[in-house]
Design a protein that fits this description.
The complex is a heterodimer of chains A (about 400) and B (about 280). Chain A contains 11 helices and 21 strands. Chain A is of the alpha+beta class and about 400 residues long. The longest helix of chain A has 18 residues. Classes of the chains: A alpha+beta (about 400), B mainly alpha (about 280).
Chain lengths: ~400, ~280
């Protein structure tokens, strides 16, 4: 086993189209790291570069202590799991799993043992003599995992391995993969576009963004909770979390021990001592404030000490376990390059936002208002996020 | 393979396990479909029935034992198998080039490859003669260097067969390669396979149905070849007179022999179709 190191890695296609710039990540031995980001962010390209299926234009990639830039895929000692599983239809499950071992001229008896053991772990012993076409999606997924496991590689590379499964099976396989990793302890690099998958599976999560020049694709790499609590910029803040964080332009008003954040007729009072320095320095100016939907709760303004908003819900989504209250505030919507990148992933653009800032609040389903009803929402001001409106960086 | 291909290759992004849509199937086809379809089917069936009805069943063995028939059978067997083998050895690499590599003039090359399929075979034979005849573009230096003369030889018959049949090999194999998801080969590379192993253990087995279909199609096309053979290789009994040519000659002089030889070709063609059905059609 071994760690994986990206050292200032870059990728330029055909001498002109840049897909990756300046990505440096240190993955320690046994770690489960997820690369996540919208389509075009370079996550699959990075994975294929580790596998040796793409050339490395700049920088270097190391597996363990060995620089693998010029090492053929077959000599990199990695096992990749593909989105379509890439199981060979002309081979039985057993032969599919043994394929890599046979190529290495592993003794027959050992192949048998390792395939048998992997099949037991993955509970596919009964299917070993079937062809892949006779298996369900979930079973094929397990066989693909089995083919990777039996090689006992230095690292697993997984390219959206669950995205061909239906939602229920995906959740199930997600936890199985997690269990498998804690059992085997093999370094794993996992690519997905699904932030829930990323958050639940990764020891650490690397958030990547499509680039336009030579700034790095890598926006932040951190443990899931850290990403959620302390996103480094608007992109990470908007990408991680579902429903997404609300962003609004607010004017900072300094007033001794209490600082006010004013936007569209609302005013939130925040304890000045708890604010980052960057906010106080921008007194009288506009910043971007981020509020997670779960930082709202139904309550009364009287008891909340000025950290409440009275809003009129335009839509209420009742999920039973929680309810989403949608409302708008008469402030122009926050549009930055990061926000545009996030909107593009949803298939919309900034023009579709209109001229109001739309909010989503996640509230207790028992107290959810009716549509059109005026509601008081208390904001947990200790959980606000503050961003520079120009750079999008966290203040 | 069908199911596998559909949900994991053609739609790699599809999330759900996917159930095939149920198609409502009407019990009986409407008349405006059924009547022309029946006429169409009759057009296929009647000639075969005519042949079977008139076939000299009792004298079959004697007729097929004649010199003319024996030599034609032997020659057709050799030349059609030869043409199929050469088409395999040359056609698969051509298909590979067309599918996997981008080179200038690729669409021109594809047109060139398909040309023999639409060209009247007689014209193809004449073209072969101008190129490879003893006075031809390539034929003349070839003769001077080696003394080899292709026209009016069994080699010429094989060459004419390759010319008209190889496009079928190129087309089927290129189709097979194109529908092969490249991730199958990438996966093999990450599992420790070198280029040659990938080719031998993954690519070729996975396009095997297309290769088999290509062999069957080129072989039967070469077996039935008439026009280009006649023009390029002539009609010399024992040297270039294949089954179709022998049938054509016998129709004038010995109708029963023509019928017997035709029967052989009908049976062989049917056998090829049945074999193809198992190997190729069912997996579609």
């Amino acid at each position: 086993m071994a760690g994986i190191t990206f050292d200032a890695v870059g990728k330029i296609y055909g001498g002109e189209t840049r897909a990756i710039a300046d990505v440096s990540i240190d993955i320690t031995d046994g770690e489960f790291v997820v690369l996540v980001g919208p389509s075009g962010c370079g996550k699959s390209t990075l994975l294929r570069m580790v596998a040796g299926l793409e050339d490395i234009t700049e920088g270097k990639i190391m597996i363990g202590d060995r620089v693998v830039n010029d090492v053929a895929p077959k000599d990199r000692d990695i096992a990749m799991v593909f989105q379509n599983y890439a199981l060979y239809p002309h081979m039985t499950v057993r032969d599919n799993m043994a394929f890599g071992l046979k190529l290495r001229k592993t003794p027959k008896k050992e192949i048998e043992e390792r395939v048998g053991e992997a099949a037991r772990i993955l509970e596919i012993t009964d299917y070993l003599d079937r062809k892949p076409k006779a298996l369900s999606g979930g079973q094929r997924q397990r066989v693909a995992m089995g083919r990777a496991i039996v090689r006992e590689p230095a690292a697993f590379l997984m390219d959206e391995p669950l995205s061909n499964l239906d939602a229920k099976l995906r959740v199930q396989m997600r936890s199985e993969l997690g269990l498998l990793h804690s059992r085997l302890g093999t370094t794993t690099l996992y690519v997905t576009h699904d932030q829930v998958e990323a958050m639940t599976m990764g020891d650490r999560v690397a958030v990547l963004k499509a680039i336009t020049d030579t700034e790095s694709n890598l926006q932040q790499i951190a443990a899931p909770r850290e990403l959620y609590d302390r996103p480094r910029n608007l992109f990470v803040a908007g990408f991680i979390g579902s429903p997404a964080m609300n962003f609004v332009y607010a004017t900072v008003g300094a007033d001794g021990t209490t600082t006010t954040l004013d936007f569209g007729g609302h005013s939130l009072a925040v304890n000045s001592g708890a604010l980052p320095d960057g906010v106080a320095q921008r007194s009288g100016r506009e910043i971007v404030v981020g509020v997670r939907p779960e930082a709202f709760e139904i309550g009364s303004a009287a008891g909340a000490g000025g950290s409440a908003m009275t809003v009129t819900s335009s839509l209420v989504e009742q999920l039973g376990s929680e309810a989403y209250v949608h409302f708008a505030v008469p402030v122009r919507p926050v549009v930055t390059a990061d926000i545009e990148a996030l909107l593009a992933e949803e298939g919309t653009d900034a023009a579709a936002l209109g001229d109001e800032t739309k909010f989503t609040a996640r509230v207790n389903p028992d107290h959810a208002p009716r549509v059109g009803q005026s509601t008081e929402l208390v904001v947990d001001t200790t959980k606000l996020h503050y961003f520079d409106p120009e750079t999008g960086d966290t203040l | 393979m069908t199911e596998y291909h559909e949900d994991s290759i053609r739609n790699p992004s599809r999330r759900s396990g996917g159930r095939s849509r149920t198609v409502r199937r009407p019990r009986r086809p409407p008349a405006f479909i059924a009547i022309p379809a029946a006429i169409g089917l009759a057009l296929f069936a009647l000639p075969v029935l005519g042949l079977l009805g008139r076939a000299p069943w009792r004298r079959l063995a004697t007729l097929l034992g004649s010199d003319l028939a024996q030599e034609a059978l032997r020659l057709s067997a050799i030349s059609s198998v030869g043409a199929a083998i050469i088409s395999l050895l040359l056609g698969v690499p051509v298909a590979w080039m067309l599918c996997r590599y981008d080179f200038p003039g690729r669409s021109l090359v594809r047109g060139l490859v398909l040309l023999p399929m639409v060209l009247p075979p007689v014209v193809g034979g004449a073209a072969l003669l101008f190129a490879l005849g003893r006075r031809g573009l390539v034929g003349s230096p070839l003769y001077e260097a080696t003394g080899l003369v292709l026209p009016f030889s069994t080699g010429g018959v094989i060459l004419a067969g390759v010319f008209v049949a190889m496009p079928l090999m190129v087309l089927t194999v290129e189709g097979g390669l194109r529908s092969l998801d490249h991730r199958f080969e990438r996966a093999a590379e990450t599992l420790g396979a070198g280029r040659w192993t990938v080719l031998r253990r993954v690519t070729i087995p996975m396009i095997a149905p297309s290769i088999v279909a290509g062999i069957a199609l080129t072989w039967s096309r070469a077996l039935g070849e008439f026009g280009a053979t006649l023009t390029f290789a002539g009609n010399l009994q024992g040297r270039t007179q294949t089954l179709p040519l022998a049938v054509f000659v016998a129709l004038e002089s010995d109708r029963d022999t023509a019928l017997a030889l035709s029967l052989v070709m009908v049976i062989v063609s049917l056998a090829v179709l049945v074999a193809l059905r198992d190997r190729w059609w069912r997996s579609r």
